[in-house]
Design a protein that fits this description.
alpha/beta; 5-stranded parallel beta sheet
Length: 383
């Protein structure tokens, strides 16, 4: 009996140890694929970092709690690209900003006021070309009008318009210019609840038939995320090419976007595309903010709309806003820009190895803008 009790006692003591060993074994086995997945993801982004064809002479951005990021004041940097295929020579352009963080010909100059205020993304910024060869720069040289440029690579329409709203009364322009090649898509959020895990503002519909609302990141979220190396999607274009962007920002963004796509979170389904949203409502919300920007400035807004995103919606704006917006659609854009650009040398038509407008195309755009602003009375005479 004593032996039996001892054996029973030994078995009772051994069972917990066996359970712990089994649980540990299963934990290790289950962890292996998870660790392997993490290593594969990090390996992929490490490879993306080492093969990324663009470069910069340092970041020229800073975090902004409302907009996600803005350009740093008095910055001196550069952007460039290498064509890994060897088919083109790539590009290189100096980047300078003025005392308020607007792109300019030299660092630290005063922001020009009382002229034309350009608002937009990388096309308006002039990605891949010197400031003088961007279309705002060409317009400035062509007309001798004061120019201010509130634009950043990878901005969404909402980011650009919010920056314009912040500055329009201080710039006191005679006219606004806005070119949209579809970057309204970058402002689209989706989900059943109001997005809170976002690092840049977005348009979000609280219900399928409801108008889209403007949603900003929660107070302090952007700045805190930057301190931990988690940067807003797209900020790579302003020189944030460090390892933290590739190994922290991108994996976290992909996880969040996956959760949004399968309906477990609210926010961006994609950094650069309107994924799973009412696209008409996103465009309608963008146009409404543009109308508000023009009304706030009390000046004409030249809307360059080669993609025909807004022509069918202008009539929905309040009369006061509609009277201020002058749209250039696909046909005049094709006649004045696209068709003649096709006759230019390739490096004048497009940035080599990149695709943004080259100096020649930007000159055509500047001439179109000058002609249109003259026609509506925002410039004194044709250049």
């Amino acid at each position: 009996m004593a032996q039996t009790n001892g054996e029973a006692t030994g078995q009772s003591k051994g069972q917990p140890r066996g359970f712990v060993r089994t649980a540990a074994m299963w934990a290790i086995l289950l962890a292996i694929p998870a660790v392997a997945l993490v290593l594969m993801v990090l390996g992929y982004y490490a490879w993306a970092k080492t093969t990324y064809p663009a470069y910069a002479c340092g970041s020229f951005a800073k975090p902004d709690g409302e907009i996600g990021w803005v350009l740093r004041e008095n910055a001196s940097s550069c952007i460039g690209g290498r064509d890994v295929s060897g088919e083109t020579e790539g590009f290189h352009a100096e980047v300078f900003t003025d005392v308020n963080g607007f792109r300019s010909a030299r660092a630290g100059v005063e922001t020009q006021t009382g002229g034309v205020f350009f608002v937009g993304d990388s096309w308006t910024f002039g990605f891949g070309v010197e400031y003088e060869d961007s279309f705002p720069g060409r317009f400035e040289a062509l007309t001798d009008a004061p120019v201010a440029v509130a634009a950043s690579p990878a901005y969404s329409a909402l980011q650009a318009i919010l920056l314009g709203e912040r500055w329009v009364e201080r710039i006191e322009p005679k006219a606004l210019v806005y070119l949209d090649h579809g970057f309204w898509e970058r402002a689209a959020c989706r989900g059943s609840s109001r997005p809170t895990r976002i690092l840049k503002p977005c348009f979000w519909q609280p219900a399928p038939d409801a108008p889209a609302e403007t949603v900003a990141p929660p107070p302090g979220r952007v700045e805190t995320a930057w301190r931990w190396g988690n940067l807003p999607g797209g900020v790579l274009g302003v020189g944030e090419t460090g390892w933290d962007y590739f190994l922290i920002s991108r994996p976290l963004a992909q996880i969040q976007q996956l959760l949004v796509r399968i309906g477990l979170a609210s926010g961006f389904g994609h950094d650069f595309a309107a994924w799973g949203v009412d696209r008409d409502e996103m465009r309608r919300a963008t146009l409404a903010r543009l109308g508000g920007l023009a009304e706030k400035g009390g000046v004409p807004l030249l809307l360059l709309d080669p993609g025909e995103y807004y022509g069918d919606m202008l009539g929905e704006l309040p009369e006061a806003q509609r009277a201020l917006i002058h749209r250039v659609g696909a046909q005049p854009w094709s006649e004045e820009v696209s068709a003649p650009a096709n006759l230019l040398p390739p490096d004048q038509a497009r940035v080599p190895g990149d695709g943004h407008y080259g100096p020649g195309s930007n000159d055509l755009i500047a001439r179109l803008i000058a002609a249109e602003l003259t026609r509506i009375g925002a410039l004194p005479s044709a250049p």
